[in-house]
């Protein structure tokens, strides 16, 4: 019989391998998974303050600053003055960022299809049910945070 700890360790190992495979595969398009998520958030919400991005992703402000610095250096995002507060800046998606996001999203979709395409429809439905149960258990242990990944409609 497999213990909860053993199953947890196996899940974390598989998660790490899958995340690395997706991140490495997306790097061909010039973006990491993290940078893609930030650009996607900017596309969804429009120009956003860095502190809002940090809170949205549940990371320290310096972490989001590093990501935004890299995106700005590559011309994929830009900092703009906030029209509602002269002291604040907004991070906005550039046209180059929009193009890079499209390429990275296509790569991400292809990679996830390759990984999760190994499961048949019944196994995928079971996995969604199991992930929902695990997410509920984990949510009880962490402060309320928005779910970054889109919910799966059934």
Structure description:
It is built from six helices and two strands. With 154 residues, the chain is mainly α. The protein has one domain: Arc Repressor Mutant, subunit A. Strands 1-2 form a two-stranded antiparallel ribbon. A hairpin with a 2-residue loop joins strand 1 and strand 2. Helix 2 crosses helix 5. The radius of gyration is 18 Å and the shape is globular. The C terminus is likely disordered.
What is the molecular shape? globular
CA radius of gyration: 18 Å
Mean residue pLDDT:
90
Number of strands: 2
- Main sheet attributes: strand count, strand direction, barrel closure: 2 strands, antiparallel
List the strand order in the largest sheet: 1-2
Distance between the termini: 31 Å
Second CATH tier, the architecture: Orthogonal Bundle
- Please indicate the percent range of residues in DSSP E strands (runs of 2 or more): 5-15%
User: What is the CATH topology?
Assistant: Arc Repressor Mutant, subunit A
Counting H and I runs of at least 4 residues, what is the number of helices?
A: 6
List low-pLDDT spans.
Answer: 149-154
Assign the structural class, choosing from mainly alpha, mainly beta, alpha/beta, alpha+beta, or little secondary structure.
mainly alpha
**Annotated CATH homologous superfamily:** Winged helix-like DNA-binding domain superfamily/Winged helix DNA-binding domain
CATH class category label: Mainly Alpha
Count of domains: 1
String of helices and strands: HHHHEEHH
Helix content: 55-70%
Summarize the structure.
It is built from six helices and two strands; from the N terminus they run H-H-H-H-E-E-H-H. The chain is mainly α and 154 residues long.
């Amino acid at each position: 019989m497999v213990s909860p700890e053993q199953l947890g360790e196996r899940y974390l190992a598989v998660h790490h391998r899958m995340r690395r495979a997706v991140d490495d595969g997306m790097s061909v398009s010039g973006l990491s998974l993290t940078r893609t998520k930030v650009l996607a958030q900017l596309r969804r919400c429009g120009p956003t303050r860095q502190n809002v991005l940090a809170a949205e992703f549940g990371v320290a402000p310096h972490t989001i600053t590093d990501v935004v610095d890299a995106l700005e250096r590559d011309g994929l995002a830009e900092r703009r003055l906030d029209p509602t507060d002269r002291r604040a800046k907004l991070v906005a998606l550039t046209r180059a960022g929009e193009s890079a996001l499209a390429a990275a999203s296509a790569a991400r979709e292809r990679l996830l299809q390759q990984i999760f395409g190994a499961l048949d429809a019944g196994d995928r439905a079971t996995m969604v049910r199991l992930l929902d149960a695990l997410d509920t258990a984990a949510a009880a242990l962490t402060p309320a945070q928005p779910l970054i990944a889109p919910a799966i409609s059934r």
